[in-house]
């Protein structure tokens, strides 16, 4: 799939898959979306001393960067284990062109913006004393066969239902739910009705929240 670099409205960059007319992040602001959906309505709602995060999918790595940035600012006393799943990794040259180092004042994050794309797949790596990252190259439906710790927080960041409808139906949420702790949280930029109904059927408490720039609503869901 051919990917094109584009600039979003907050100045941060993302990738556009030309054949699908689908972007990796919101055109209204890649950085703003990541912080709003996955930090403000995700990480900051979890109070555990140790947090296991599962991301579908790893993509450009922006979500792990905003998570690590938040960890350095406010969460260094907590342990974070981050598992990012991606079937089609981007190329290192694409990661370089995204220039995510320019988005963060902290030099540690600047250096990390490209280093995370050099990390070996399937290997748990220490980014800091209390922050570990494991990138997994696999299909999302194979999560059911993966040896993961009980997940506290899910970043559900798949491509939209228009291009990948099977990733927004009950089967995938049932698989993800099987890996989550009771009381665990799933957060996503979408407010798709079929997803909401599927999560409720699976016993989640679903809440609509204000969406990121350019989107009226998004969903979070607690596993009960």
TrEMBL record:
Tell me any Pfam family this protein matches: Methyltransf_30
Occurrences of domain MnmC-like methyltransferase (ranges)? 117-224
Could you name the domain of life of the organism this protein comes from?
Bacteria
Gene3D superfamilies per UniProt: Vaccinia Virus protein VP39
The Gene Ontology terms for molecular function here are:
oxidoreductase activity, acting on the CH-NH group of donors; tRNA (5-methylaminomethyl-2-thiouridylate)(34)-methyltransferase activity
| Transmembrane parts of this sequence | none
Protein name, UniProt field: Peptidase
